[in-house]
Design a protein that fits this description.
Length: 223
Amino acid sequence: MRFSEQLWQRNLALYNKTLALPFNQELATGTLNKDAFCHYVIQDAHYLVAYGRALAVCGAKAFDADDIIQFTQGAKEAIVVERSLHDGFMQNFGISKADFENTPLTLACHHYTSFLTATAWSESYPVVLASLLPCFWIYAEVGKDIVNKSVANNPYQAWIDTYSGEEFNQAVKNVLATIDRIAEHCDALTLEKMHQAYTKGAELEWLFWDSAYHQRKWLGLDQ
């Protein structure tokens, strides 16, 4: 069994809980509260900047030139997507530049981005790679599930199409191939640290969506 298959099996229950979140289910039916989606988009834009930084550090730690290219390009794409949110979803849903800039990170977003950047700087390349994988992989799997359930004229169809699309899923396949190749040469201790890093990332993916649905702010308090 490939390392990626082991990751998926070990975290399958958590993935199913993520898939069952009201945010994702209502996204598919087009009934998700607009304010919850706007809350999510603002936090996702904040998140992608930190994710881009972590990808850049991952690229700097990579073992060979191809992996350096893969993750430094990934860092660039994260920032490109972050900027496209401002011109796309934010504009379409009436979120102004001031709205975005004046909205701080939620507790969930702060926790997730802090975990990624701390792991990127402090851990070895294989562990950093494992921590970054959930954002790629879980989004792709959720996107593929939702696209099959999406209703006609879904106001969130553009988001669904992005993460269920071939371009994004090909990027995920490339990252999976990389982590399987790297894992083949890791010792038992490193493999276990990779498992732990992936699980923590997957838990924080769940938390991010759950927080967005309930529009939670810092410590759950309105500001």
